[in-house]
Each structure stands twice: as C-alpha cells, then as structure tokens.
Amino acid sequence: MEQIVGKQSIQFQRAAHILSAASVVGKKEGDGPLGKYFDKVGEEDGLFGCTSWEEAESNLQKEAVTLALEKAELEKWQLRMIYAGDLLAQTIASSFGIMGFHTPIYGLYGACSTMGEALSLSAMAVAGGYAPYVAAVTSSHFGSAEKEFRFPLGYGNQRPLSATWTVTGSGACILGTKGGKARIAGITTGKIVDYGFKDSLNMGACMAPAACDTIYQNLMDFNRLPEDYDKIITGDLGEVGQRILFDLMKEKGFDIEKQHMDCGIEIFDQNTQDTHAGGSGCGCAAVTFAAYILPKIEKGEWKRILFVPTGALLSKVSFNEGKSVPGIAQAVIIEHC
Amino acid sequence: MEQIVGKQSIQFQRAAHILSAASVVGKKEGDGPLGKYFDKVGEEDGLFGCTSWEEAESNLQKEAVTLALEKAELEKWQLRMIYAGDLLAQTIASSFGIMGFHTPIYGLYGACSTMGEALSLSAMAVAGGYAPYVAAVTSSHFGSAEKEFRFPLGYGNQRPLSATWTVTGSGACILGTKGGKARIAGITTGKIVDYGFKDSLNMGACMAPAACDTIYQNLMDFNRLPEDYDKIITGDLGEVGQRILFDLMKEKGFDIEKQHMDCGIEIFDQNTQDTHAGGSGCGCAAVTFAAYILPKIEKGEWKRILFVPTGALLSKVSFNEGKSVPGIAQAVIIEHC
What we know:
2 copies of one chain form a homodimer. The first copy, chain A, is α/β, with parallel strands linked by helices. Chain A folds into 2 domains: about 170 residues, Peroxisomal Thiolase, Chain A, domain 1, CATH 3.40.47.40; about 160 residues, Peroxisomal Thiolase, Chain A, domain 1 (3-Layer(aba) Sandwich). Helix content of chain A is about 35%, strand content about 25%. The first copy, chain A, contains 11 helices and 16 strands. In chain A, strands 1, 2, 3, 4, 5, 6, 8, 9, 10, 11, 13 and 16 form a 12-stranded mixed β-sheet that branches. In chain A, helix 7 links the parallel strand 10 and strand 11. The interface between A and B is large, with 61 and 61 residues.
C-alpha cells in the first residue's frame, strides 16, 4: 500500500507513460483559438458523414482512437483495454464508437470529468502491471448533448450568459509502460460534491465546488502548493465557474489564479464565437488535453501539471424531478519525462 | 506484466478478498425463490419511502453499501473508492445514491454487466496496492428501467415471452487485501459483440453472443475446461439467452450445461411470477451474487466459480434510430479461500 498518499490520492511507483494522443473536432472548435492544434476538423454540418449526431459522435471516438494508435505505431490488437465514456444516456457514443476495435472495454460515466476518470483508471491498469497498452477516450457533440440534456436545436431557445457550449470532439490517449515524454505520476480520485445548485444552464457553478474539493485534497495529499504545478487545468468550468473556484480556493487559503487554466475558456473565443461562459462536455477537456496540453508537457515547457476534468451529474429526469446538480472532479498529475 | 494471461485476462498475484456483501430488493424479488436470502425486502409500492422510482433506486444503493459496510465492520471513511453504476441515463441512481458517503467514486456504465465491471475494477484497485478497501455496487429498478428504456408502466403494454423483468434491487460488495472467505483470483475483460439483433424485448438473444465470447476467452486464456469451475454463472440471459449460449458454446466445442446457472432464471419463478424469460438489470446479478452465490463460495460448497454479468448496450435513442443492441459480458473468477 506504499502507493497510497493522503486521503484520496495515489502516487504511482511504476508510472504509466502517455505514448500518444489525438483529437478530432467540429468546425466551430476548428475555428477557435486552438484550431490549428487539432488533428482533424469536421465540416459545418457536424455530421462527419453520418446520418445522426449520435452516430457522428461515435465516429469521432473511432477516429480519435485510430489516429492515436497510428501516432503510437501500434495496432488495435495490441490494446489490452479501452476505457471509454461520453455524455449520452447509456454511453451509446462509446459503445458504437469502440465496438469495431474488438478490444476489451470498460465503459465509464463521470459526466464531463470522464477524461480524468479514464486517464486515472488507465494509469492504474498500466502501473498495476495489468496491461502493456491501454487507451482512454471520451467524446461529446453539441447536437447530441443539447438533445440529451436541454432542448432540440430546432427549438432555438435563448441561452443565458452562464451557459456553456458543448464541444463537438473526441480526444484519445494511448498509455504504456514506457516511451513518450509524459507520464501520469499520480491521481486524486474525486468525491461527489453537492452545493444544491439546480441550474442546468449554469454548470460552471455546479462543478466549481467539486473542482475546489479535488484540487485542495490533491495539494493536501501530496503536501504541495499551487506553485508546485506549472498549470492547474480544469475541464470546463467556464468564466462563471472559474471565478467561483478562485473564491472557494481562497477561502481554503490558496490562490491558484496564476496557475489556473480552464479548457472550456481556452477552446472558444467568447467575443467572436457566441459561446457565452465557454466550452463544455466530455470532449472539451479531452481534445484540449490531446491537442494543446500534452504537447507542452512533452516539450518540457510545462514540467508538471494537475489536470482536473470536471463533471456535472444530472440527467433530464433528475433535473425534471427537481434534483440538484452535484459535481465531481477527477485529478491527474502529469509530468514531463 | 506477469499477471497478464492470454488475450483478455488477468490473474492477480495479490488477489483481492471479498469481505462482505449485502442485498436490498423489492417485494417481487422477496417473493421469489431466493427471497429468504436477501438482507432487506421492500414494500409492494417499490418506492422504499421515496417519492420517485429514481430516488428509490438511489436509496437501494445507499442501503446496500451501508449494510455491506456494517457486515465488514468498516466505517464509510475507510473506503478508499466506490465503483458504482446503474442503468439510468447518466447513471443518476449511483450519483444520488453514493453522494452521501463522501467517498471518492468512479462511475461505470456496462448495462447489466456493470457488477462484473465494478468487481473487476475494484479487484484491480486492491490487488494493485491502490486501496485497502473498496466497494462495488450496482442497482436497477423495474419502474425506473421501464420508463428509461421502454414504455411508462401506466401504458400497460403487452410483453412478449422473450422479455425479461428488470429486478428491483441493489447489491454491494466490500473488497479488501485480506479477510473473508472468497477472493477474486482473476478476470476476463469483455469485448462488445454485435450479432445485429434489434429487439429490445429479447435482450437474452442480444447478450448471449457476448457471454459466449467472454466465457470462451476465459477458458482459452486460463487453459481451463468448463469442469474446472463449479459454476459458470451469467447475469441475466434468461431462458431464451441461455439456450442460445449453450448452442454457441457447443459450436466452439464446449458443453457448459452442467455448470451453467443464470441469475435471471434463478431470481423469479417463471410459472407463478409472470416474469417470462427471467429477471434482468444491473441489480439482478448483483443481488443474486451478494445473497446466494457468495455465501456458497464462502462455505466452500463451490470452490471456484466464473461469474459473468451480461449487458445489452442500447438506449431509447439508439433503439429508435434503428441501431442494433450489442452485448458485453465481464467475467470474474471467484475462489473459496
């Protein structure tokens, strides 16, 4: 049990290495500030040659894993397991996206925190000696997510400024025992945190308390200060959630404003892209990680980061039954090597 | 990597022990052949004191984990992680059920195979030295599942004889590094298998090919024959799925009729309970395992079993869009110790 640190964290003795990563996104994401970093950008219609948004989202996962495998120079049969998830009911984007690989799979649901969960469990599998190679993949799609959680797109509802825009995209990482220039040194498993918020159009506020909880616990467990990380990167808090996170962290005695970055804020240009509080969705953290964050670690520009995808735990049913929207955040420590 | 065996399996060097298990079920399950084995049986209304079926299902998970902790003489803070899942969109039964424990959590979705997935990942966590104690829990509820996947109960639709009846219940297991009289010796991770079936009222047929695939691969990976297991126990194939499984296994050269048992067939009395092909749902395999299977292993009546919860991967949306219903099965080897 010498790998266990503090209350909620693991420090790996044989850290899993990230061998490659790939990202496939929609046109809007391609038009955004990170556009040039993505491996593949789709057309305006968001269908990626498919006939439904759900199928399009499955296709994104398939392409992201295929590209990541190519970059790692591996064949699909070499993957011992795939850890996959998405936002749709019964995670159908993953099931239909990954099916064709004929690879053992574990399906995950952690809302928009799922890439943190997938990387954590993948790292545990590799570091535990259970697999030479695994893949972690998540996706989201604006069309399928709005249909799943809010209103049909054709209804043309107004969106408050606190709302985020679900990213159309999928990011995949291949992990292995050696190789690559980044490794997962440790993780902090998130708790579900509920402040009683009930607004599904202000997910940043719902997730910020969970982000604070996981980041604070990570600093405690590893006995670190924010400056021990080059960056502390949340998934999709957006502008509103980021302000709440800063306030909550200050209450706990930590100022993370210098280190903090949020994938949801980076991926769109709020002024020109009409995305309000920022990007969100399982794909947001995944594609930003694959396209923008990981290369900076690989180059050694950032030596150690804390990657904290954040999720809002709700469904149409729980929302309509008047339930709150609890949050969760899964943290992964990634180091240059 | 000395723990990896064959193509899809792991043989644990430091096998996780199952310290305790608990089951909470609805009245119909309590009236069935296994009724006397369950820890707690609810009232006729299926609400367990709550105002909605979803809340009732959350409550089932909460009670199952609480009871399992009591049996293991552990406090909730001693649990390092909970691996939890259910059938509802965005796995809300788990989120709202587990939230109150304030324990780190990984949410899972593997349809009705989720108890196999939860036990597999829990065993990996304990055997990897990542946690002294973890919990695995899944649930399903007849009311919430019919609403989620098929028709509102009030509609009173006819059910074909191939249909299964979703079990109302939750089963939880506590795993640890030592103690107890059963251990998880190995696992075989399932692939998604799609034979193109599209009938959501014949899930047995959709899942049988996946069950065959995982069981066959387990026998290959460990170089075993069916008789090396006292029992090979699937989750919820029901009468129809069982016949298909026998045929498919025979095509591969194995007769498993003597060893095979199906939780879905055991849990209801087909003749008096009007459940047609049998029980199903995430809770079916979980409560049957906790109440009936595990005690037999603990007593040494069964020395080694293969527990193979089976899942049908569909959603309302994928079904309505004309997609097939692929299957998955996650296998866990459990031995008396």
